[in-house]
Amino acid sequence: MLKDLIHGIIPVKEYKKLLDQEERLRYLVKDLSDVDSLSDEAIYLATDICAWEDAFRSGRYVKPKVHLDKLTTGHIRTMIQRVEKFFEEFGWPTKTENGFVSGDGDYLLKHTLLDLKVSVKTTMQISWVRQLLLYYTLGFYNHFNKEDIERLMIFNTRTNTVFFIDIANIDQSVFKFVYDVAEKQSKINERELRKYIN
Description:
Layout: H1 2-6, H2 12-24, H3 40-58, H4 70-90, E1 95-96, E2 106-108, E3 112-117, H5 126-141, E4 151-156, E5 161-166, H6 172-197
Parallel strand pairs: 3-4
Antiparallel strand pairs: 1-2, 2-3, 4-5
Helix pairs in contact: 5-6
């Protein structure tokens, strides 16, 4: 939050107000080990935190307008329980894909690159496949990161569905294609950015 103040995302008055609120709500996060006992107030606080995370990525803070209704807080509580059970079964993250917590739901398990989704869709979506292939190709295909990734996995917390494929079952030409397309698009983006910079 201090970075947001420094970078002008939030005014000083709003920053002070949020520090006061954080102090008042500190008791909510003393023991979050029991997901079943998470209060609605703790879930409201989490949605506020998500707004800050979004501000960090977009450069613009948008304060949540309304608190969630009981149905939505129930869904959130259920999804948190599912994530906890998922990690207990498949292993806890060794780190997030980019090394720090971010809004992207991508994590490294022991030998798995995982992306978390929250969608009412019950089937695998092509955009999810593209996203995970891109994460893997740019991060691991050319050994940019040293982790040994054996599997790509998506966990949709909303429907409690797991999709996965072993890297060995994907033709290497797929990764080469994704890498080449990403490189080509990167050069196009760079040229466009230079127009605005120069």
